[in-house]
Amino acid sequence: MDDSRTLDEILQDPQGLSEAEVERIRLDRLLGVTAILLSQRGHHEAATLLAEAASAERNYQDKDWGVEFYEVALDVDPSLVERFTEDVHALILETIQEAVERETYGVSVLRIRPILPAVEPNWRANVRADRGTHVSNQARKVRSDPQHPIEDRLHFTNLWEHRVYRTLKAIQATLEDSETIGIAPLAGIRVRDRVFEPDFLITYKGHAGVIEIDGPYHQGQSSSDKSRDRQLLHAGVKYVDRLDVRDVNSETQVEKFLRDFLRMLGS
Question: Model confidence over 35-44: pLDDT tens digits?
Answer without folding.
Answer: 999 999 999 9
